[in-house]
TrEMBL record:
Pfam families: TauE. Belongs to the 4-toluene sulfonate uptake permease (TSUP) (TC 2.A.102) family. GO terms for cellular component: plasma membrane. The keyword Transmembrane applies. It is found in: Cell membrane; Membrane. This is Probable membrane transporter protein. It comes from Spiroplasma eriocheiris. Keywords: Cell membrane, Membrane, Transmembrane, Transmembrane helix. Signal peptide: none annotated. The chain crosses the membrane at residues 7-27, 33-55, 83-108, 120-140, 147-168, 174-193, 213-237, 243-265, 285-306, 318-341. The lineage of its organism: Bacteria, Bacillati, Mycoplasmatota, Mollicutes, Entomoplasmatales. It is a multi-pass membrane protein. InterPro entries: TM_pro_TauE-like.
Length: 353
């Protein structure tokens, strides 16, 4: 019975998203453009295909995995709830740009909800694939970005990630992390100085389009590089926020661009983990369901609730988002430096006689 409820819940996600968007449409919050509608429909098809593939591949093995883990899985109902809450929290913060993987790993280790650590990466990729697509659909549908800007930057990141995977083993992740973290800190200082509360230097802009040809070129090159770095495990969110700001785009424009870039990549990568059975079924399903609700709640609370509740106009809300971006960039840069130092210490210990 529990198994059927879990899988029916998984099937309900695309339906809930459609109902959510229709509700926003009739309340005049969603005013779709042709480009945003096409991209959203493509991503919705991605979600449908991915959910179908996940169900057909995992459903026959569900009971076998339940028996194989013994005492670890005795209270399966309680475990599913815990995993669902972890997915909800992780994707809630992912929706505001902080990222879901680091939070998921910390909470999984604290609650001891995953048995095989070697399957964490596959579990996270599969469990967060659908919520990431939902984020992209919501932001692409609801945030106005010029179609060419959106398509060029998302396509550049997607191509970069695909080609970057071929050279992933030839690039040292540690040096890439240090370089990006230093660049992020410098950019965050520039953003901070451009805030109207500080007012030391002018803000680059508040546009929804790159407008000038050289900005399209620079944006495409940088997002190609960011996409390539994604294949090394370097998150795209904070760098994308920084780059869109420097290119003169509004702070909120970063969200559909970075979410869209991730959404076109994660399901494809996750399919490999499903095919190789390199994941744990229950955490993946619980993350998908809990994370999907986390995405919707985050958008309603942060991007609609705060703005409407506090009576903020667009400029005031964008100003708050820019402060959020600064915090996210500092957090990401700090985590990269921390990971670099930790890996260095681990390598030293392993090389010591």
């Amino acid at each position: 019975m529990q198994k059927k409820i879990l899988y029916w819940s998984l099937l309900s996600i695309p339906i809930i998203l459609i109902i959510f968007l229709i509700t926003l449409y009739f309340t005049n919050i969603w005013q779709p453009t042709l480009t945003s509608t096409i991209i959203s429909l493509v991503l919705l098809c991605f979600v449908g295909i991915f959910v179908y593939y996940l169900i057909t591949k995992s459903y026959p093995s569900y009971d076998q995995t339940e028996k194989s883990v013994g005492e670890f899985d005795n209270n399966i109902r309680q475990r599913i709830w815990k995993l669902g809450i972890i997915g909800f929290i992780a994707d809630f913060f992912d929706t505001i740009g902080i990222g879901s993987f680091a939070i998921s790993i910390v909470l999984l280790k604290l609650t001891k909800q995953i048995k095989n650590n070697k399957k964490i990466l596959g579990t996270l990729n599969i469990g967060h694939a659908v919520p990431t697509c939902l984020e992209a659909i919501i932001f692409i549908s609801l945030v106005k970005v010029e179609w060419l800007t959106l398509v060029v930057l998302i396509a550049a990141a997607s191509i970069g990630s695909y080609l970057g995977a071929m050279f992933a083993n030839k690039i040292k992740l540690g040096w890439a992390q240090i370089f990006i973290s230093i660049v992020l800190i410098i950019i965050s200082i520039i953003i901070l100085l451009g805030q109207k509360q500080v007012g030391v230097m002018p803000s680059p802009g508040n546009a929804d389009s790159l407008q000038i040809w050289w900005k399209y070129l620079v944006g495409a090159i940088v997002f190609f590089i960011l996409g390539a770095l994604m294949s090394l495990g370097v998150g795209i969110y904070a760098p994308a926020m920084a780059v869109t700001y420097l290119l003169g785009l509004s702070a909120i424009c970063a969200f559909p661009i970075m979410m869209g870039s991730a959404a076109f990549l994660m399901p494809i990568g996750a399919l490999r983990f499903i095919k190789d059975q390199n994941y744990e079924i229950k955490p993946s399903l619980a993350f998908t369901i809990g994370g999907s609700f986390g995405v919707i709640c985050a958008y309603l609370i942060v991007f609609i609730g705060i703005q409407k509740g506090l009576g903020l106009n667009k400029d005031e809300f964008v100003n708050i988002l820019t402060w959020l971006i600064i915090v996210v960039i500092w957090y990401t840069a700090g985590m990269m430096i921390y990971e670099y130092v930790k890996n260095k210490k681990r390598t030293r210990k392993q090389t010591q006689p």
